[in-house]
Amino acid sequence: MTKKPIIVITGATSGLGQLVAIEMAKRGAHLVLTARSESRAEATQKMIKESVPAAGIDFFYGDLSLMKDVSRLGQEISDAYPKIDVLLNNAGLHAFEQRITSEGISEMMAVNYFAPWILTHTLQLSLKAAGSARIINVASEASRNHGELKLPEDLINTSDFSARGSSEIYGKTKLLNIMFTAELARKFKGTGVIVHALNPGFNVTGLGRELWFAPILERVLKFLHIGNPRKGADIIIRLMIDPKYQETTGGYFNVGTGNPIVPVHPGGDKEMENKLWNDTRLVIHQITQ
């Protein structure tokens, strides 16, 4: 009997993560899902079980905006699963106002960048132990609207921003995801772990849960067949299972075609990607001590 692949997914109680979880359950994977809300976890489990009654699902609870919580969460998953085949860093947030976490950092930076960095670091032994694992990071072409990247200042920037100004901050976090992916691929070289990032396209699920008109806009866009999240889920699944994406590592791929994308500068700048890595380690150390 073939052993079920172990797939860890963040942000699986809604949107792209939920669609990927259902599809991978159909393909025989054992799902390890993170959640903050027990009620949403139960609803997601019910939805998956309706499609795949025999699906294996385990939930681990934590707040991805709190770095100490992410570290604990990762350790709990690592202890339970000494081998992990796929890690999908999918959870993301587009905040339309600045919110500072109890650890003193921007919530959007915490959820979108620091959380996947810490979770990946905490699960690295389990990923390496699998022999041929994959790490998939959900980035975005919103990264092209990042303004100017300043390190390490942008990592710890807690300045206020408006709804209009939020797009630049969001884009910056997505650029960091791309740069992190490239540097992580170099760090994992020779371990059998493949690392890729992707642009999931415009999805109605990512409109910003904080906008009062988001549900209305989502219905309109669905009616017009704009922003179909299944396309975003499709490229994620391809990166997980298609052998051709195992021939390279550190790539950034587009929704639809599945073709590689050249990231906006300083994405692709090895020196800057290494600086980002080192600056991130220092900031996380300061936060979690």
What does this structure look like?
It is a single chain. The chain is α/β, with parallel strands linked by helices. It has a single domain (6-202, 228-288), classed as Rossmann fold (3-Layer(aba) Sandwich), CATH 3.40.50.720. The protein is built from nine helices and seven strands, in the order βαβαβαβααβαβααβα. It has helices at residues 15-26, 38-51, 67-80, 107-122, 124-129, 166-187, 214-223, 229-241, 270-288, and strands at 6-9, 30-35, 56-61, 86-89, 134-138, 194-199, 251-254. A seven-stranded parallel beta sheet has the order 3-2-1-4-5-6-7, with helices on both faces. Strand 2, helix 2 and strand 3 (56-61) form a beta-alpha-beta unit. Helix 1 packs parallel to helix 2 (38-51) and helix 4 packs parallel to helix 6. The longest helix is centred in the middle third of the chain and has 22 residues, at 166-187. It is globular, with a radius of gyration of 18 Å. It starts with 5 loop residues before the first strand and ends with a helix. The model has no long low-confidence stretch (mean pLDDT 92).
The share of residues in helices is: 40-55%
Oligomer: single chain
Radius of gyration: 18 Å
Biggest sheet strand line-up? 3-2-1-4-5-6-7
Q: Could you give the count of β-strands?
A: 7
Q: What percent strand?
A: 5-15%
The H-level CATH homologous superfamily, spelled out, is: NAD(P)-binding Rossmann-like Domain
Known CATH architecture: 3-Layer(aba) Sandwich
| Average predicted confidence as pLDDT | 92
Task: Write down the secondary-structure element order.
Answer: EHEHEHEHHEHEHHEH
Q: Roughly how many Å apart are the termini? A: 45 Å
